[in-house]
Amino acid sequence: MSDLPSQGEQAVLEAIDVHRDYSIGSSTIPVLKGVNLRFLPGETVSLVGRSGVGKTTLLQILGLLDRPTSGQVKVRGRDVSQLSRSQRAEVRRREIGFVFQFYHLIPELTALENVMLSQRIGEPFLQALARRRSERERATALLERVGLGHRIRHRPRQMSGGELQRTAIARALFAKPSILLCDEPTGNLDADTGAAILELLFQLQTENRTALVMVTHDLEVARRCERLVTLRDGRVEKEELLAAGMPPIQ
Amino acid sequence: MLAEITQVVVFQSLAVGVAALLVAAALAALLFSFVQTFRRAAVLPLAVRYACSRWINIVSVAGVALGVAAIIVVMSVMNGFISTQRRMIRGSLSDLTIQPRAVPDGNGSSRMPGSFEEYQSALEGCPHVVALAPRFIWYGLLFPKGVLDIFNLGREGQDFAAKIIAVDPNAEFKVSEFRRWISPVGEDDPGLRDVERRIYTPPGDLDRPFARLERSGSLPKDALLLGVSKAYRLRLQKADRVEITTFGTKSSRENPTPPNQLFDVVGMFHTGDQEFDSTVVLITIPSLQKLLSTDVNFTEIAVKLDDYRNADAAREEIGKRLLAKKLIKGRDYNGLPSLKIEIQTWEEQKQNLLAAVDNERSLLGFILFFIVIVATFIQFATLSMMVNEKTRDIGILSTLGASWGEILAVFVDLGVAMSLAGEIAGVALGLFLARESTLAAVERFLEDRFGLKMFNPDVYLLKSLPSEVDLVQVAIIAGATLVAGVLFAIVPAVRAARLDPARALRYE
Ligand SMILES: Nc1ncnc2c1ncn2[C@@H]1O[C@H](COP(=O)(O)OP(=O)(O)OP(=O)(O)O)[C@@H](O)[C@H]1O
Ligand SMILES: [Mg+2]
């Protein structure tokens, strides 16, 4: 158990002794075997480990998409593992943003609509109608901020990987979550584009004081975070505090 | 017997129960998704986008549209057939018929309980009763005079048999469609074959249909109107002379020769009821009285009502008045009090035929609804495919915080939208196609282009395909289709809502 995050400040997200078994047929395969992690507001954490160690699984549990077999997940100190499906959806909507390796935009919607969707979900119809103009302006501004001012009416099919990921980041941050969970956000991009995306991610995260949890295979990427968590054999093997925003190793 | 009836009742209430349950489920789902749509701004735009995004949706919308249109067209044609069939079946019958049972006259014969005038005054001012007409019904043999191949005709012996209905034309005009039957055949007069339409000859003066013919050579005889089918079968024409032979009302020992008399055919009539038009001859009441040497002047009374829907009330009122004057017995065959033997509506008189016709309609409606079920099933398949295809999207919606209700509502809305679109198109198409002019055009087109004869006027005894759109029926069809659409949308929608987002997102 690490004492690295300061115990005084309230964690925005916390995993306590999280276990996750997958059962295939009659046999159960334990993937997570007691993970303990705390994330503070505005902090950046990278999550590394061998392929298949359970990084995505952990991220999904932290993002309330999946339930741990045992153990607790706390959001702002509140245990959410026992909440109903709808209640967890509500927490997800208010607190958590996701960015995936494969962008996962809705193909039928334009970039602007994809971004606005995250706000519209869970919002009453009339309220959305009343705020439509201001929300549209805010979404346009955000898309301009991620460098896609000229792409707001484009459909996902008409955009490059880098543009898609920028849109996805804008979408994840539009509803102002307190935690951003990224699963290999640069994994599908070339080095230059990846670097630019990463740059953007860190800038926006700092601006919004969003906690960032990022799964990556790329140590260089990992080193840009304040904290590095290594998973091994279903547990946290080590947690290292890094000098925040360390420059890439030459 | 009792077991059978209970079985039917149980089955029926079961069916009604299941139907009510399905409708309730559909309504609940509709209400739920309506509330969700209103409370959650993301639902409607997503549903609309999904609806517009794939061409296969158009196929299922078109499927529903064609199904609905087909039902509307077929049901409308069926309605048209049924109402013309009802007209044919009704034939000469007035709204109500009073058939008092004869009573012994003390001379070894019988008489009516009173004269027609007594009935008339008993029913003076009776509510719902608009007009009365006496009819005197008798049977006899009709023999065409001067026909050479009489032995050929004789082989079809029943053609000589005649139901003689003696009427008072002026009263008859007021209780039945008498004027229509003796008018020239109209385009939409049902129940006639083409030859019958051709040979039909009306009497010379429609206001005085039984006026005697002016003939050179011999003195004119009493007038007789001949059913058009009978005229055709006996090769009779206007101005031909016929002889009617019958049996007397007095005992035959006193009257050894059967009563007989010559009549002039002054015209024909067409009620549309084949049975009636091929058996009946119409003469005046005085003619029949003379033929039978009797002073009986009616055997039944035709009653015209203000509105047929008041038939039961009218029967009660008429029954009360006639019973008070002892003009009817008011008992059924078991001696129990009942008016239904002596006073009958036309529908009761033709019960069996009508039941068959109405049964046909419900059966057809039931069968046709399967078309819609099939069409809706296409929609079910389309939606299910879409849920499969959108698995990842559904996962994304979950990550964005969509509740299961929102996701359910997106797919229910989608189903409802597709079903509604199909229905609107289908109703429009159906109403257009079900117009008689459209049907006639289609029929003509098929005949001209492909030599297909859809419709044989002589089989159905109609000039053209009839069609009657019943808007209540259309509304029921639309409602039932919507219910089916919603029900079939629920299954894929629930599946979408229950998808595990973790799994949905895992595979690219
Ligand atoms: N639904 C499932 N059923 C059974 N086993 C599963 C399921 N999902 C994941 N696993 C297993 O759990 C383990 C962890 O998977 P996970 O995707 O979390 O790994 P990962 O660390 O993200 O790997 P990668 O770096 O390749 O993305 C793997 O061995 C995987 O086979
Ligand atoms: Mg992974």
Description:
The complex is a heterodimer of chains A (250) and B (508). In chain A, the strands form 2 sheets. Chain A has a 6-stranded mixed beta sheet. In chain A, strands 2-1-4-5 form a 4-stranded antiparallel beta sheet, covered by helices on one side. The mean pLDDT of chain A is 85. With 250 residues, chain A is α/β, with parallel strands linked by helices. In chain A, 34% of the residues lie in helices and 26% in strands. The radius of gyration of chain A is 18 Å and the shape is globular. Chain A contains 8 helices and 10 strands. With 508 residues, chain B is of the alpha+beta class. Chain B has 2 domains: 27-89 and 354-434 and 469-506, no CATH class; 129-305, no CATH class. Helix content of chain B is 56%, strand content 13%. Chain B has helices at 2-39, 43-53, 55-90, 116-122, 150-154, 169-175, 178-182, 194-199, 228-233, 274-279, 285-292, 311-324, 346-349, 351-389, 391-399, 404-433, 436-450, 457-460, 471-498, 501-506, and strands spanning 96-98, 103-104, 110-111, 129-144, 161-167, 222-227, 241-245, 260-269, 280-284, 300-305, 343-345. In chain B, the strands form 2 sheets. Chain B has a 6-stranded mixed β-barrel. In chain B, a hairpin with a 5-residue loop joins strand 2 and strand 3. The A-B interface holds A 56, 60, 63, 65-66, 85-86, 89-94, 96, 98, 100, 102, 104-109, 113, 117-118, 120-129, 171, 175 and B 37-42, 44-46, 49-50, 53, 392-393, 395-406, 500-502, 505-506, 508. The complex binds adenosine-5'-triphosphate (ATP) and magnesium ion (MG).
